[in-house]
TrEMBL record, chain A:
<dbReference type="InterPro" id="IPR013611">
    <property type="entry name" value="Transp-assoc_OB_typ2"/>
</dbReference>
<dbReference type="InterPro" id="IPR027417">
    <property type="entry name" value="P-loop_NTPase"/>
</dbReference>
<dbReference type="Pfam" id="PF00005">
    <property type="entry name" value="ABC_tran"/>
</dbReference>
<feature type="domain" description="ABC transporter">
    <location>
        <begin position="4"/>
        <end position="234"/>
    </location>
</feature>
<dbReference type="InterPro" id="IPR003593">
    <property type="entry name" value="AAA+_ATPase"/>
</dbReference>
<keyword id="KW-0067">ATP-binding</keyword>
<protein>
    <submittedName>
        <fullName>Sn-glycerol 3-phosphate transport system ATP-binding protein</fullName>
    </submittedName>
</protein>
<dbReference type="Pfam" id="PF08402">
    <property type="entry name" value="TOBE_2"/>
</dbReference>
<keyword id="KW-0813">Transport</keyword>
TrEMBL record, chain B:
<dbReference type="InterPro" id="IPR051393">
    <property type="entry name" value="ABC_transporter_permease"/>
</dbReference>
<feature type="transmembrane region" description="Helical">
    <location>
        <begin position="126"/>
        <end position="146"/>
    </location>
</feature>
<dbReference type="InterPro" id="IPR000515">
    <property type="entry name" value="MetI-like"/>
</dbReference>
<keyword id="KW-1133">Transmembrane helix</keyword>
<keyword id="KW-0813">Transport</keyword>
<keyword id="KW-0472">Membrane</keyword>
<dbReference type="InterPro" id="IPR035906">
    <property type="entry name" value="MetI-like_sf"/>
</dbReference>
<protein>
    <submittedName>
        <fullName>Sn-glycerol 3-phosphate transport system permease protein</fullName>
    </submittedName>
</protein>
<feature type="transmembrane region" description="Helical">
    <location>
        <begin position="220"/>
        <end position="239"/>
    </location>
</feature>
Length: 353, 312
C-alpha cells in the first residue's frame, strides 16, 4: 500500500540547502508527525512529498513508485494547507467536487460522494455557501472534506489547526486522530507544536535545521531523547540542563516534573541522585500543578510539582532533588546523549545560593 | 480605523456640551466637508451637462451665439433621420466591440505569458507600456506614416513578400480596421500591465491546490484564474468601453472620418457638426445621445456583469 520513503532527500533554494539529506520511512497507515521549530524545513519536506516543490537531490517513493517526476495530482495524495487554500470563487460543494470531476467521475456519483462526505464533516447545510461566508472551523472542515473525498493513500497536512482558536483546535485534534483510525490511510502531519505532535502522532519525526534529530514514538521521545535538542524540544516546560563537575564536558539534564522540591534544608533521603540548594524566585500556579522557578548556583531551574502537597512561598530557601533514574547525560560538544553514566554521590549538595 | 475615528468623535462630542452657535457649525459640518468637491463637480460636470441638454433644444451655431432659436426636439429628429448618423453609430459600435475585445484578449494572453517570467517581463513591459504613455497624437502620426501608401513601412513589408502595396486608410474596407489596429496597439500595454497586477494578486496556493486536484491547465484557467481575475476584467471592460466610445484623436489625425464617412464616429461627428458645419444644435443633440449611450452601457455592465464579479 502506501508507505512513503525518503532517501537522502535534499532541497536547496538558490544554492542554500534547507533540507539536508533526509532518510525517512513513513510506514503505511501511520500517523507521522514532522515537528520542529519554525524554519527547520518541515513544510518544504511535505511539499516535496506532495510534488509542489522539486527535489534537489535524493528520491521520494510512495508505495512502490518513485515519484520524483510524478506530478502532484498523480501521486494519490491529498493535502490540507495551513490557510486551507479553498477556491474562493467556488461554493463548498464545488470546492469538494472539483478534484472528483477532474478524475472524470460521473456527475451523479460525484454528487452523492460530496453529500456523503459533507454529512461526515457536518457541512450539509453549507454546501452552497462561499468560503468567505464560513467560519474558520467550517473552512477547516471543507479543506478536510476536499482531501477526504478523493480517498487518497496519503494525507498531507501542513499545520492545519494553527488558524483555529484553542478550544476548536483541541476538538479538531481528537477528530483528526479518530479520522485517521477510521480511514487507515497514511497521515503525514506537520506542526511546530510539540504538544500537538505528542498527542496526535504515533511516529514523531523531530527536525532541526533541515536534519532529522530523532524518529520515535511519543513515549520513547519523551523518555529516551537521543540528543540535547530533542530533550529540550519535547516536553513543556523544557528539560533543565546543568553543567556537571564530576565528569569533563558532560551535561546533566532532568525534566521539571521529575524534580522534587522541599522547604527543608536538611539533606534528604538516602536515595541515589542529586540534590541542590536554592531559593524560589517565582512560581506559577497552573491549576493542579505549580511551576517553581528556583535560583541555584547552577542557574535557574524549573520544577513542576503537584500543589496538593505543600505550596512553597516565593523567596523561600528550598532543597531540590532528582532521582538518579530521572537524570540524562549529554556530551557537551556534540549534544548527543551519553548512556551508562552514573551519579556516584550527591555532588551538588554543597553551597547554597 | 474609521471605527476609531468615529468613536473618538463620539466621545469628544459627548464630553463637550454644545452651544448654540457650535450646534449650527456641527450640523453644517458635513456639508462644509463636501462643499469643495461639490462645487468642482457642479462647475465642471453637472452644469456643462445640463447646459448641453439645454443647448440640444436650440438651433444655434458658434458663428453667432445671439441667434439662438428654440426648436424643441427638432435636432434629435434631424439626427435620427440622417443616414450618416446611423453609420456613425454603427462605426462606433464596431470600433468599440473590436477594440475592447482585441485589446483585452491580446493583453490577457500576453499577461498570462509574461506572468512569472521575470527576465523577459522587464524588457517586454517597457516595450508594451510605452504606447500608453505616448500622446495619442504622436501615435496617430506614427501610424499615419507606417500606413502611408508610398513611403509606409507596412507596405514595404508587403512588398518584400512580393505583395502589392495597399492603401490602408484610403480604402473604405480597411480604414476602420486600421483605426482599430492603432487603438488596440495603444491599449494593449496598459491592459497587460493591469492584468499582470491582477494575476500576481492570485495566491499561488490556489494553483497548488488545483494541481493536487488534478486540474488540467485549461480548467485551472477557466475555473480559477478567470474568476479570480473578474474584478480586473470588469474594470478594464468599463474603462476600455468608455474610452473607445470616445475615440477622437486618431480619427482627427489619420482619416478625418473618411473615406466616405467609413471611419466617422460619435465624438468626431459631434466635433465636425459643431466646429466645421456650425450646427451647434445637432452637435449638442449628438452629445446627449453619446452621454445616454455611455450611461446605458455602464449601467448594463454594472447590472448584468457585476453579479459575476468576485470581490475579495
Ligand atoms: N520558495 C522558497 N525560496 C527560498 N527559501 C525558501 C522557500 N521556501 C522556504 N524557504 C526557506 O526554507 C526554510 C525552511 O522553510 P519551511 O520548510 O517553510 O520551514 P517550516 O515549515 O519548518 O517552518 C526557511 O528558512 C525558508 O525561509
Ligand atoms: Mg511551515
Amino acid at each position: 500500500m502506501a508507505r512513503v520513503l525518503l532517501k537522502q532527500v535534499v532541497k536547496a533554494f538558490q544554492d542554500q540547502p534547507v533540507v539536508k539529506g533526509l532518510d525517512l520511512t513513513i510506514p503505511n497507515g501511520s500517523f507521522t508527525v514532522l515537528v520542529g521549530p519554525s524554519g527547520c524545513g518541515k513544510s518544504t519536506t511535505l511539499r516535496m512529498i506532495a510534488g509542489l516543490e522539486e527535489v534537489t537531490d535524493g528520491e521520494i517513493w510512495i508505495g512502490d513508485r518513485k515519484v520524483n517526476d510524478v506530478p502532484p495530482g498523480k501521486r494519490d495524495l491529498a493535502m490540507v494547507f495551513q490557510n486551507y487554500a479553498l477556491y474562493p470563487t467556488m461554493n463548498v460543494f464545488e470546492n469538494i467536487a472539483f478534484g472528483l470531476q477532474n478524475r472524470g467521475l460521473p456527475r451523479q456519483e460525484c454528487k452523492s460522494l460530496v453529500h456523503e462526505i459533507a454529512e461526515v464533516v457536518g457541512l450539509t447545510s453549507y454546501l452552497d455557501r462561499k468560503p468567505s461566508e464560513l467560519s474558520g472551523g467550517q473552512r477547516q472542515r471543507v479543506a478536510l472534506a476536499r482531501a477526504m473525498v478523493k480517498k487518497p493513500q496519503v494525507f498531507l497536512m501542513d499545520e492545519p489547526l494553527s488558524n483555529l482558536d484553542a478550544k476548536l483546535r483541541n476538538q479538531m485534534r481528537v477528530e483528526l486522530t479518530s479520522l485517521h483510525k477510521q480511514l487507515g490511510s497514511t497521515f503525514i502531519y506537520v506542526t511546530h507544536d510539540q504538544v500537538e505532535a505528542m498527542t496526535m502522532g504515533d511516529q514523531i519525526v523531530v527536525m532541526n535545521e533541515g536534519r532529522i534529530q530523532q524518529v520515535a514514538s511519543p513515549v520513547e521521545l519523551y523518555q529516551d531523547p537521543t540528543n540535547l535538542f530533542v530533550a529540550q524540544f519535547i516536553g513543556s516546560p523544557a528539560m533543565n540542563i546543568l553543567s556537571w563537575e564530576e565528569e569533563e564536558s558532560c551535561l546533566l539534564g532532568f525534566r521539571p516534573e521529575k524534580g522534587r522540591i522541599a522547604a527543608t534544608i536538611q539533606p534528604s533521603t538516602e536515595e541515589k541522585g542529586i540534590s541542590l540548594r536554592g531559593k524560589v524566585r517565582s512560581r506559577e500556579i497552573l491549576g493542579a500543578e505549580v511551576l517553581y522557578y528556583v535560583d541555584t548556583r547552577k542557574g535557574q531551574i524549573i520544577v513542576k510539582a503537584n500543589h496538593d502537597v505543600e505550596l512553597i512561598a516565593e523567596d523561600e530557601d528550598v532543597r531540590l532533588s532528582v532521582a538518579a533514574k530521572d537524570l540524562y547525560f549529554f556530551d557537551e560538544k556534540t549534544g548527543m546523549r551519553v548512556m551508562g553514566q552514573h551519579v556516584h554521590s550527591l555532588p551538588l549538595a554543597g553551597g547554597a545560593v | 480605523m474609521w471605527k476609531e475615528i468615529a468613536l473618538r468623535r463620539y466621545q469628544s462630542r459627548s464630553q463637550v456640551v454644545p452651544q448654540k452657535s457650535g450646534q449650527l457649525l456641527e450640523k453644517s459640518r458635513p456639508y462644509l466637508y463636501v462643499a469643495p468637491a461639490l462645487a468642482f463637480f457642479t462647475l465642471f460636470f453637472f452644469y456643462p451637462i445640463a447646459y448641453m441638454v439645454y443647448l440640444s433644444f436650440y438651433d444655434w451655431s458658434l458663428l453667432d451665439l445671439s441667434a439662438m432659436e428654440w426648436v424643441g426636439l427638432e435636432n434629435f429628429h434631424a439626427l435620427f433621420t440622417d443616414a450618416d448618423f446611423y453609420q456613425v453609430l454603427s462605426n462606433t459600435f464596431v470600433f468599440t466591440v473590436f477594440t475592447v475585445s482585441l485589446g483585452m484578449g491580446i493583453a490577457f494572453f500576453l499577461a498570462l505569458w509574461l506572468n512569472h517570467r521575470a527576465k523577459i517581463y522587464g524588457i517586454v513591459q517597457a516595450a508594451i507600456f510605452t504606447p500608453h504613455i505616448i500622446s495619442l497624437v504622436s501615435i496617430a502620426m506614427l501610424w499615419l506614416w507606417l500606413m502611408d501608401p508610398q513611403y509606409g513601412l507596412l507596405n514595404a513589408i508587403l512588398e518584400s513578400f512580393g505583395l502589392p502595396p495597399y492603401s490602408w486608410l484610403a480604402d473604405t474596407k480597411s480604414a476602420l480596421a486600421s483605426l482599430i489596429l492603432v487603438s488596440v496597439w495603444k491599449v494593449v500595454g496598459y491592459n497587460t500591465l493591469v492584468f499582470i497586477a491582477g494575476l500576481q494578486s492570485i495566491p499561488k496556493y490556489l494553483y497548488e491546490a488545483a494541481a493536487l486536484d488534478r486540474s488540467p491547465a485549461w480548467k485551472t484557467l477557466w475555473k480559477i484564474t478567470i474568476p479570480m481575475l473578474s474584478p480586473t476584467l470588469f474594470f478594464l471592460l468599463i474603462i476600455n468601453t468608455i474610452s473607445s466610445f470616445q475615440v477622437f484623436d486618431t480619427i482627427n489625425i489619420m482619416t478625418q472620418g473618411g473615406p466616405v464617412n467609413s471611419t466617422n464616429m460619435l465624438v468626431f461627428y459631434i466635433y465636425e457638426q459643431g466646429m466645421d458645419f456650425y450646427n451647434g444644435g445637432i452637435a449638442s443633440a449628438a452629445s446627449v445621445v453619446l452621454l445616454l449611450l455611455v450611461a446605458l452601457l455602464t449601467l448594463f455592465h454594472f447590472l448584468v456583469l457585476s453579479k459575476k464579479v468576485h470581490y475579495r
